[in-house]
Fold this protein.
Amino acid sequence: MDYKALAERLLPGEYPSLASYEEKYPPRDLPKGAQVTRLAPSPTGFIHLGNLFAAIVNERIAHQSGGILYLRIEDTDLKRKVEGAVEAVKNALRYFDIKFDEGAEIDGDNTYAPWYQRQRAEIYRAFVKHLIEIGRAYPCFCTEEELTKLREEQTAKKEITGYYGKYARCRNLSEEEIYKNLDAGKPFVIRLKSMGNPENKIKFRDAIKGEITVTENDQDVVILKSDGIPTYHFAHAIDDHFMRTTLVIRGEEWLASLPIHIELFDVLGFERPRYGHNCSLMKQDGDTRRKLSKRKDPELSLEFYRKEGYYARAVKVYMLTLLNSNFEEWYLKNPEKPLEEFKFTAEKMSKSGTLFDIDKLNDISKNELSKLSAEEMFDFLKSWADEFGTEAQKGYFEDRDKMLKVLTLCMGIGGKKRRKDFTTASQAMDFIRYFFEKPASYEEYRVDGETKRTILEGFLAKYDPADDSQAWFAKIKEIAAENGFAAEMKDYKASPEAYRGSVADVAEVLRIATTGKANTPDLWTIQQILGEEETKARIGAAM
């Protein structure tokens, strides 16, 4: 068969020489040992925890080694493309402080651009044409219906599904048959002519899992679709070579494709990057573990963490805890150090499924938020409210001094022990709502209506906003005694049957009337922040 003539018929026209691409995209001038890594999501609008998992690994390895992290957009599948998806990817990764050096919409070196795969179509076609010319690729005219029947036949026979061996129907078409199909205008794809034998095993050194064994590839995979755009398998091999990627960290679901990728690099004559396959994120579901699911688990999406207002550092701390077995110990010893100082290694990543526990993340988030100053918390909450908050919540920040007083109280700043009441921005904004909005509802009072009214009337009669906390509490004790409650806790503990309750019960009535809640930080301080007019209005409303 005249392969050169066939290549010209299938992909007519002149293409730059393959050597010219080597000159256009030269090896990078980087220090010895520097790693070039990448994140290469599809523009589907859904960026998930697994992407962040991989992004943190790739960012740490690249920057610790003095290398490069770049962002490539793998948009070969137009059916899945979502408008605004690239911006969503960038926003999500920016939120978690993933710093790219180069890439799509990144202000950096563009020597290795373009960063969108559809803009690199000419490069892929040049290499496809070369493979056809050397007899390592061929046109396939099978329809979707024929391929579906083929899979059904293989499934019925309990054989491996795919296009290989005797099932590769177009692999051995004669020259006459090929040109007859082309003259008839039949649509076609280009497939790799695999030379692999699944009986042969390949030893492979995985950057995470260590030495593994895979079989040779025998699948004649599609490398160029009927629209002239390559498949992911083919495009990624060419891009990783010409973007001079040295290390690819990806999910273990790609292990099944590893034989295909090994053969593609070999047939293209490229040196392979190192591959590392990280374990799947698992979730405890009753007595069993399962992979996090897009359909079942909202916490899989990175947008969930932005909308809920998780503190980015907290999420990164938890991710690093899952990623490197020695991180937790390091962080306990160095809680204030920049996370970048932790020496990350792929070898210490888990080799089996990693359990994702959102309760543990929440604990870490509470701890991280408790370390912030009132000013830092103000900035964090305002940033969240500006993007995700209600109009009322945005208004909380109009009086900066008031908000700082609220945060100082609620975080226990200046006290003996910092409070850890805040988990996320959305939860914190709900927590402090009563400082800015009148209670819409009240938790249940533990006294009857008449007693409640008597206590509140007594408070209004004695209330003086100029009182310090001691004078204020002395009046609460007086109200307690006047209504048959023990003014001193020691008296109540000694003879509980002699009283209707204690001064704590009286304070709780005032607390609920003021805030709607039975548990809050110091009530005197809350009323000082609210001011005389608002405090009296709320007590009156509660009556």
